[in-house]
């Protein structure tokens, strides 16, 4: 009898512990709920996605929905319903669940907006967009945009800038990683003078149907895509485990270009040449043509004032990273961060591109990326997400890898073998 009572007590204790653990987990996760409607009523059947994740739901007959088990952080809701324009809304979860109202607008596109205008350069611009948005990695070769007809392309000749936009979800099939992406493209531009690419948007990931053997290949490819990525780096930086995860942080310092004359010398010589009278369209001094001198100083003017120098001093993360609030960390620095990922070597395909970063001969052929700040600092989340995508400008490997090498923000790598 005593043994039986003891068993009952132990069972009750175990149940209480399970309930407490479940309650603790519930207290650390929250939900986003609300209603999707137009100007009048709720909209049943609307699809609600969580940008960057594989989490989604469908609105009920009253247009109501709920997304549960969400950690504190910043989220972007994406809404899609036939006959209405795609819609996105940013939501921040701090310490409680959030309710929202999502109001959709009817898609009353004009005829000239749905018919592709005849443009002899359209296909060329679409191909450029694919290269700069999807990428040129081996994974990119297995990606396909399924609805390119929804893209509006424009090339601004005065600014040498390609601008691409759309009012629909862009559908990208990635047969390398096994994802089907619905991408709400907010903005894309490529400047052919500066070679700077900027795009922002909201991707939603769906699993492609596949056999067990194919899924195994997808999992292996996703592991390669994740490790060494900017997402992996910022996750490990948040957890203060960059070294354990294989990252070395140095700096790329800008120093005066030793091959360029000081600006005042260049200006003085160009002014001197311009002061010489012109004869028959060619500047002459004492009967001798000085076009070679003009070309020399013009070339000096065009040379960069600074060059990049690899600093071997390792940057310590405890002086680099600070808490911004309970959900965000923050880093600010001078010059640029040079990040080496030591557990993967640069691929042959990458070394043949213009993204390659110069390094001293004695530095191993690790994957190297450079992170330039565009403002005062960058805020980032525990899952590796960046609060403001415009706060960083990448060079090297992270610039080389684009949408074709993305995994969801809630991606969990396989357990490491001991």
TrEMBL record:
Superkingdom classification of source: Bacteria
Keyword Chloroplast listed: no
Signal peptide location: 1-26
Keywords for the protein's UniProt record, in alphabetical order: Signal
The UniProt record lists the keyword Iron: no
Matching Pfam families: CarbopepD_reg_2 (PF13715)
Record-annotated membrane-spanning stretches: none
Entry-linked SUPFAM superfamilies: Carboxypeptidase regulatory domain-like (SSF49464)
Protein name according to UniProt: CarboxypepD_reg-like domain-containing protein
């Amino acid at each position: 009898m005593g043994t039986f009572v003891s068993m009952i007590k132990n069972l009750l204790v175990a149940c209480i512990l399970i309930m407490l653990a479940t309650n603790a987990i519930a207290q650390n996760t929250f939900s986003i709920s609300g209603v999707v409607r137009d100007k009048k009523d709720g909209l049943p059947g609307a699809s609600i996605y969580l940008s960057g994740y594989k989490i989604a739901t469908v609105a009920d007959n009253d247009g109501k929905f709920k997304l549960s088990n969400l950690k504190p952080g910043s989220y972007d809701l994406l809404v899609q319903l036939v006959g209405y324009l795609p819609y996105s809304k940013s939501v921040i979860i701090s310490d409680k669940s959030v309710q929202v109202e999502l109001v959709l607008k009817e898609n009353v596109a004009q005829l000239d907006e749905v018919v592709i205008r005849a443009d002899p350069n359209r296909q060329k611009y679409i191909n450029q967009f694919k290269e700069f948005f999807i990428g040129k990695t081996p994974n990119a070769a297995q990606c396909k945009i399924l609805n390119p007809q929804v893209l509006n392309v424009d090339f601004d000749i005065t600014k040498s800038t390609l601008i691409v936009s759309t009012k629909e979800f862009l559908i990208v099939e990635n047969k390398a990683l096994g994802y089907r992406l619905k991408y709400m493209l907010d903005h894309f531009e490529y400047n052919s003078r500066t070679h700077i690419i900027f795009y922002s948007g909201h991707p939603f990931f769906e699993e492609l149907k596949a056999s067990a053997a194919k899924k195994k290949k997808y999992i292996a490819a996703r592991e390669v895509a994740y490790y060494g990525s900017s997402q992996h780096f910022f996750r490990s930086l948040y957890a203060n485990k960059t070294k354990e995860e294989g990252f070395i942080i140095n700096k790329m310092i800008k120093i005066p270009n030793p091959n360029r004359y000081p600006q005042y010398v260049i200006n003085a010589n160009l002014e001197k040449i311009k002061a010489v009278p012109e004869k028959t369209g060619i500047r002459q001094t004492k009967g001798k043509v000085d076009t070679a001198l003009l070309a020399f100083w013009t070339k000096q003017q065009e040379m960069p004032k600074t060059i990049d120098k690899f600093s071997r001093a390792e940057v310590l993360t405890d002086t680099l990273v600070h808490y911004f609030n309970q959900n965000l960390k923050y880093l600010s620095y001078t010059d640029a961060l040079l990040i080496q990922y030591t557990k993967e070597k640069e691929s042959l395909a990458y070394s043949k591109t213009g993204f390659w970063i110069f390094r001293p001969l004695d530095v191993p052929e690790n994957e190297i990326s450079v992170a330039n700040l565009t403002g005062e600092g960058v805020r980032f989340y525990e899952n590796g997400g960046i609060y403001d995508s415009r706060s960083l400008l990448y060079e090297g490997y992270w610039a080389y890898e684009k949408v074709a090498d993305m995994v969801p923000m809630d991606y969990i790598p396989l357990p490491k073998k001991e």
